[in-house]
């Protein structure tokens, strides 16, 4: 993360990073996401159910070891959490060298992955705007004598190009530093100051969870599919919705494939 990127991240709360993953990685992971989408769409409403501490209900899939919620339908989102358990094709994102070079610059001390989700957004769907302003300590943005000091941050990996029309990830730049709650509602299409971030396959967006963000309405016929990976200080538990504030849900099978450095991103060793 060079000086310009650090300046821009501190000023705006996000960065668009070109070509963070290779075209081959994007294509291979998209194939796996397509298979998982078909699987989750069939199972998402079935037992067993997992109730999160936020009161939301999720399907736990015993065969593939993911949690899912939402729906495969027009206007809806289907979310598949804990995707690292499902297919070794995603192992390349755990301790991904280029990603970790960014994360180490903005999260101080030992780091852990705290969120992993595939977000599948159908025609007509928007992701409601959230965050910005005064905020819970888990998502706080800070700056101290050692530089940028974020709590939770996310890297969103794009497996396909996404335009504004196709439901781009969107942000209100600078709102990680605002002192007042937003007076606007959660419709991302209406908020003044909201901008869509258009990307190509292989690009990624890094942002502090403190930043006000969401996803513009997908007005196209194409389903938007993205991979979201959250990082934070090692003390932070899972920030996946199904397992909120529980230990990260990673199977022994996945851990056994990993190097020590990869395992350390999920477990204190
Ligand atoms: O990508 C989107 O549509 C919104 C994602 C989001 O809110 C998040 O990753 O925190």
TrEMBL record:
<keyword id="KW-0560">Oxidoreductase</keyword>
<dbReference type="InterPro" id="IPR008775">
    <property type="entry name" value="Phytyl_CoA_dOase-like"/>
</dbReference>
<dbReference type="GO" id="GO:0051213">
    <property type="term" value="F:dioxygenase activity"/>
</dbReference>
<dbReference type="Pfam" id="PF05721">
    <property type="entry name" value="PhyH"/>
</dbReference>
<protein>
    <submittedName>
        <fullName>Phytanoyl-CoA dioxygenase family protein</fullName>
    </submittedName>
</protein>
<keyword id="KW-0223">Dioxygenase</keyword>
């Amino acid at each position: 993360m060079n000086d310009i990127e650090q300046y821009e991240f501190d000023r705006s709360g996000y960065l668009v990073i070109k070509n963070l993953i290779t075209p081959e990685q994007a294509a291979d992971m998209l194939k796996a996401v397509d298979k998982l989408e078909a699987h989750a769409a069939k199972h998402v409403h079935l037992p067993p159910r997992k109730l999160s501490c936020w009161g939301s209900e999720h399907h736990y899939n015993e065969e593939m070891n993911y949690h899912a919620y939402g729906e495969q339908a027009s206007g809806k989102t289907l979310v598949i959490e804990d995707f690292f358990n499902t297919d070794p094709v995603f192992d390349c994102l755990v301790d991904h060298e280029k990603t970790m070079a960014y994360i180490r610059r903005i999260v101080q001390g030992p780091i852990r992955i705290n969120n992993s989700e595939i977000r599948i957004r159908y025609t007509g769907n928007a992701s409601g705007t959230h965050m910005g302003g005064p905020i819970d300590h888990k998502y706080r943005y800070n700056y101290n004598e050692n530089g940028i000091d974020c709590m939770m941050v996310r890297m969103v990996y794009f497996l396909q190009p996404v335009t504004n029309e196709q439901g781009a990830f969107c942000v209100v730049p600078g709102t990680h530093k605002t002192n007042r709650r937003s007076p606007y509602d959660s419709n991302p299409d209406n908020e003044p100051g909201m901008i869509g971030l258009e990307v190509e396959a292989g690009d990624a967006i890094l942002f502090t969870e403190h930043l006000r963000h969401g996803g513009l309405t997908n007005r196209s016929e194409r389903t938007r599919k993205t991979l979201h990976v959250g990082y934070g200080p090692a003390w932070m538990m899972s920030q996946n919705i199904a397992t909120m504030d529980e230990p990260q849900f990673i199977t022994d099978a996945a851990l056994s494939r990993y190097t020590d450095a990869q395992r350390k991103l999920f477990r204190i060793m």
